[in-house]
Amino acid sequence: MPDKRPSATPTVQIDNDNTIVTEWCFPPHGETGWHIHQYDYVVVPLVTGELRLETTDGERLAELVTGQAYARKAGVEHNVINNNDFEFVFIEIERK
Hints:
With about 100 residues, the chain is mainly beta. It has a single domain (about 10-85), classed as Jelly Rolls, CATH 2.60.120. Helix content is about 0%, strand content about 55%. The protein has strands at about 10-15, 20-25, 35, 40-45, 50-55, 60-65, 70, 75-80, 90-95. A hairpin with a 2-residue loop joins β5 (about 50-55) and β6. The radius of gyration is 13 Å and the shape is globular.
């Protein structure tokens, strides 16, 4: 059995009636753990690098570029893994 991956660290910056803004810091090869998004969300990478996404439909790689945001709908279920040998950071903005 492989060693457990280190955990990504979420830091909530804003949580009000409309929005949750969270900074996610991933150590090298760290992960979020499996979760389901309850709200539509936008991710803004602060670092360029590759994330591995484990989903119920399989696994895929995503190349993220600093400052290039993307959006997803509520209901996404996945585990996000830093596929790099360096810290990876992004901001997640959830719309309640």
